[in-house]
Specification:
The protein has 15 helices and 16 strands. The strands form three sheets. An eight-stranded mixed β-sheet has the order 1-5-6-11-10-9-7-8. Strands 13-12-14-15-16 form a five-stranded mixed β-sheet, with helices on both faces. Strands 2-4-3 form a three-stranded antiparallel β-sheet. Bound molecules: adenosine-5'-triphosphate and magnesium ion. The site of adenosine-5'-triphosphate (ATP) has 17 residues, from strand 6, strand 10, strand 11 and helix 11. Adenosine-5'-triphosphate binds next to strand 6, strand 10, strand 11 and helix 11.
Length: about 425
C-alpha cells in the first residue's frame, strides 16, 4: 500500500467543512479590512528564500524542500508566504500603484521538520502583508486583523505578545554587545550557533537547543537597546492597540525565526490545554523589499498556522457539527420514475437546491435507509401515480410531517422550509 508522505495529511470529506468554516471567516474579515487575496506559485527559485528568509535561519539551513528540476535549476517548495509575495510585488510593479498595498493569502507551505501535533511538513498558512506604509497604525491594523480571527471564531485563552527588535542601525550596536556577551560561552553553544555568532548573533536568541537557551536567557535585551526612532514607533504601536482595546503583553524575548524582521514583532499564543503554543507570528520587514530587488519600501505582516488554529478550536469544542447535507432525497419506484427522478433532481439542483437520489438501484426500503444516512432534511418517494398527479408527498425527516407538494413548487417549498438557509 502506498501511504501519504510523512508529515502530510489528507483533508478528508468529513473534515473539509472545518476548513471552509475558518477560510470563510477569514475571507469575510479580510474583505472588511480591505485586504485582497494574492496567490503565488507553490515553488520558487531557492535563492529567493536564501535572500529573503536569510541563510542563517533554521528554515533555510534545515527545513527547506529544495531540489534541482530537470533543467538543473534549484527550486524550493515555499516554506513561508512573505518572500514570494514581496517577489511578486516587485516583479508585477505593484509598488507603482497607490499605497499601501494590502494583501492576504491562504495556502500550503512546506518545511522539512520532525512531524508532531501541530507540526507538519505540509501545513497551511493564512497571512497578510501590507507594503508601502511605515506608520505604527498599520502594524496595529495587522495585529487587530489577526486578533479578529480569534474573536470571530469565539476563541478564548489567547495572548498577544509584542516586541521591537529595532532597525539595522540600532541592531549593529546591539550585535556587538551580544558578541561580547557570547564570547566566553562560545564553547558551550551548538555548532549552528557558533556560525551564527560570526554572521548573525541575533539568530542565536531563536535557537531551540536547550544548552543554548540556558546561555542566551541571560543575554542583554534588545528592547532596552533600540534607537529613539524605533522606540517611538513601538510606543505608538502600543497606543494604537490601546485605543482599539486590544490587550497585549510585552515579551522582550521574541526575535522570530526569519531574518527579515525590523521594529515590530509579535506572536499570538494559545494557553488552551491541548493546543498550547504559537498560532500566529508576524512583524515588520522594512529591508525585505529592497533586498529582493525592489524599491526602498516597507512592509508588515503575519502568518497564522491553520492546523494549529483548528487544534485550538477543537480543544475549546468550538467546531459546530457538519451541516453539509442534502436538502432533499428523492427515492424512486420503477423504471419510469427512475428517469423522472433523474430529471427532477437535476432541475432542483439548477434551482439551487441540494438534491440527492439513489444510484445503486436499491429497493425503496434501502433507498430510505440511505436517505437517513445522508442526513437529508426532506425525502420523497416517487412512483408512476405521483408522476401522473404531478405532485408528491414530501416528508420532513425530522418531524415526520408530510405535505403534498406539486413538482412545480418543490424548489420553492424546500427553500422556504429548510433550516440551514
Ligand atoms: P515554531 O516556532 O512553532 O517552529 P515558526 O516560528 O517556525 O514556529 P513561523 O515561521 O512564524 O513559525 O510561521 C507562522 C505560523 O505557521 C506558526 O506560528 C505556526 O502556527 C505555523 N507553522 C509553522 N511551522 C509549522 C509546521 N511545520 N506545521 C504546522 N504549522 C506550522
Ligand atoms: Mg519553526
Amino acid at each position: 500500500m502506498i501511504i501519504a508522505p510523512r508529515g502530510t495529511h489528507d483533508i478528508l470529506p468529513s473534515e473539509s467543512y472545518r476548513w471552509h468554516l475558518i477560510e470563510d471567516k477569514i475571507k469575510e474579515i479580510c474583505l472588511e479590512f480591505g485586504y485582497k487575496e494574492i496567490r503565488t506559485p507553490m515553488f520558487e527559485s531557492t535563492e529567493l528564500f536564501e535572500r529573503g528568509v536569510g541563510d542563517t535561519t533554521d528554515v533555510v539551513q534545515k527545513e527547506m524542500y529544495t531540489f534541482l528540476d530537470k533543467g538543473g535549476r534549484s527550486v524550493t517548495l515555499r516554506p513561508e508566504g512573505t518572500s514570494p509575495i514581496v517577489r511578486s510585488f516587485v516583479e508585477s510593479s505593484l509598488y507603482a500603484q497607490p499605497q499601501p498595498t494590502k494583501l492576504y493569502y491562504l495556502y500550503p507551505c512546506f518545511r522539512y521538520e520532525k512531524p508532531q501535533a501541530g507540526r507538519l511538513r505540509e501545513f497551511h498558512q493564512f497571512g497578510v502583508e501590507v507594503m508601502g506604509a511605515d506608520t505604527a497604525a498599520v502594524d496595529a491594523e495587522v495585529i487587530s486583523l489577526a486578533m479578529q480571527v480569534f474573536s470571530r471564531l469565539n476563541v478564548t485563552g489567547i495572548e498577544l505578545n509584542i516586541n521591537s527588535i529595532g532597525c539595522p542601525k540600532c541592531r549593529a550596536a546591539y550585535n556587538e554587545k551580544l558578541k561580547a556577551f557570547f564570547k566566553p560561552h562560545l564553547g558551550e553553544l551548538c555548532e549552528t550557533c557558533r556560525q551564527r555568532y560570526e554572521k548573525n548573533p541575533l539568530r542565536i536568541l531563536d535557537c531551540k537547543v536547550k544548552s543554548c537557551k540556558a546561555i542566551y536567557n541571560h543575554a542583554p535585551v534588545l528592547l532596552d537597546n533600540i534607537c529613539e526612532d524605533c522606540a517611538a514607533h513601538f510606543e505608538q504601536l502600543k497606543r494604537y492597540l490601546e485605543v482599539m482595546e486590544i490587550p497585549y503583553q510585552i515579551d522582550a524575548t521574541i526575535v522570530r525565526g526569519l531574518d527579515y524582521y525590523t521594529k515590530t514583532v509579535f506572536e499570538i499564543i494559545s494557553k488552551n490545554k491541548g493546543s498550547e503554543g504559537t498560532i500566529c507570528g508576524g512583524g515588520r520587514y522594512n529591508g525585505l523589499i529592497a533586498e529582493i530587488g525592489g524599491p526602498e519600501m516597507t512592509g508588515v505582516g503575519f502568518a497564522m498556522g491553520l492546523e494549529r488554529l483548528l487544534l485550538v478550536l477543537e480543544s475549546l469544542d468550538l467546531i459546530p457539527e457538519n451541516l453539509e447535507r442534502p436538502d432533499i432525497f428523492i427515492a424512486n419506484v420503477g423504471d419510469q420514475a427512475d428517469l423522472f427522478v433523474q430529471k427532477l433532481v437535476y432541475g432542483l439542483r439548477n434551482a439551487g437546491i441540494s438534491a440527492e437520489r439513489d444510484y445503486l438501484s436499491r429497493s425503496v426500503k434501502a433507498q430510505m435507509k440511505y436517505a437517513n444516512k445522508t442526513g437529508a432534511q426532506f425525502s420523497a418517494v416517487i412512483g408512476d401515480d405521483d408522476i401522473a398527479a404531478k405532485s408528491a408527498s414530501v416528508k420532513n425527516m425530522q418531524t415526520g410531517e408530510t405535505d403534498n407538494v406539486p413538482f412545480d413548487h418543490l424548489a420553492e417549498f424546500i427553500k422556504t422550509n429548510t433550516m440551514t438557509r
